[in-house]
Design a protein that fits this description.
Length: about 120
């Protein structure tokens, strides 16, 4: 049970961080992270975990609550927390899908962590 809980928390943390790249860049998004985004991480964990878990398919349209959180997260702060370990825990294809579905698409080829963002649009 503790292992499943830990894995679920890691999945959600990864999603929260990866979604940080979802909003198209603006002047404020290019600034270095100066805020604490722990609340963003917590909110994404509580509302979006079911939409970014492995396996890669099926992709499930996220809830309105999940999209609301995706729309307001602090991109630079979340991206600054991405590690190789986090990128191994979540399904990045699902993160891209959720971000696009929530009208905050990730820019294909942009970096938020170690790997370039794949795709970027709804299938």
């Amino acid at each position: 049970m503790a292992t499943k809980l830990f894995l679920a928390c890691m999945v959600l943390l990864c999603f929260a961080i990866a979604v940080g790249a979802a909003r198209p860049a603006t002047a404020t998004d290019d600034a270095p992270p100066t805020e604490n985004c722990d609340q963003d991480v917590s909110d994404l964990i509580s509302t979006c975990q079911d939409y970014v878990k492995f396996p890669a398919n099926p992709k499930i349209p996220p809830s309105t609550a999940c999209c609301t959180v995706v729309q307001r997260v602090n991109i630079p702060c979340l991206c600054s927390k991405v590690t190789p370990t986090i990128e191994q825990v979540i399904c990045m294809d699902k993160v891209v899908y959720v971000a696009s579905y929530c009208k905050r698409p990730l820019k294909p080829g942009s970096n938020c962590g170690i790997n370039p963002v794949p795709g970027g649009s709804l299938p």
